[in-house]
Amino acid sequence: MNYKEKLETDNIPEHVAIIMDGNGRWAKEKGEMRLFGHATGVESVREALTAASEVKVKYLTLYAFSTENWNRPKAEVDGLMDLLVNTIANEIESLNNNDVRLLTIGNTNDLPESCRVELLRAIEKTKDNKGTVLVLALNYSAKLEIKQAIKNIATKYKNGDIELEDIDDELIHQNLYTAGIPDPELMIRTSGEIRISNFLLWQLAYSELHFTPVFWPDFKKEDFYRAIYEYQTRERRFGMIGEQLNEPE
Ligand code: IPE
Ligand code: IPE
Ligand code: MG
Prior knowledge:
Layout: H1 3-6, E1 15-19, H2 23-29, H3 34-54, E2 59-66, H4 74-97, E3 101-105, H5 113-125, E4 133-140, H6 142-158, H7 169-174, E5 186-189, E6 208-211, H8 221-233, H9 242-245
Parallel strand pairs: 1-2, 1-5, 2-4, 3-4, 5-6
Helix pairs in contact: 2-3, 3-4, 3-8, 4-5
The protein binds 3-methylbut-3-enyl trihydrogen diphosphate (2 copies) and magnesium ion.
């Protein structure tokens, strides 16, 4: 089935987030090293980004490295950091040619110096691009994000800058890494795992979730379109009843 052709162009999610999972198992199935799976996964990043741009998804957030991922064997962590540096350096030109802007969420200050330098360069060089915004979640933890937001807000309260009544959804949003970015309407996780793994806990409150058994290195544009196609068949009720959604305004 050609899912792209079936998409309703007026119901494309503005923000799609993806937990890119299954690189290690994909490699193992092929008798290869885990790092080969990660390197091949870069192809799928291109697929997802191109697909998102083609159907005009404004924000594509990719979960690339969690704070928990530091607990992996050192060789794998080092390999992932090298892959990150090289990929960003190699892709800047292509990001610019495709009008893609790069942003990051997560505690990027704690990434190795070479990663930080490369990321800052790419963010600066793509900052005026007007197409899809690629948001990389790096050294990311949703619980840490929420904890930092609470501390920021508590400090503002303590300093008398805000009243208790000022603490609303909007203020919390403004204190998250994703300040200014709308919540994802759709979250995809590959590799068959059915869990959130500390990703965007606040922002996913009302997202549609799409789980696919496909390992990330096998993820293609069609898989992305299929997820959007299925999203478009969902009824997003936000606590109401179906009949209310079809009432004329
Ligand atoms: C996702 O693939 C990439 C990262 C977490 C960096 P995994 O490396 O988790 O692959 P599996 O889940 O072990 O197969
Ligand atoms: C989540 O995948 C993190 C990323 C995709 C970067 P993991 O493979 O680390 O998650 P768990 O440990 O299986 O939950
Ligand atoms: Mg995994």
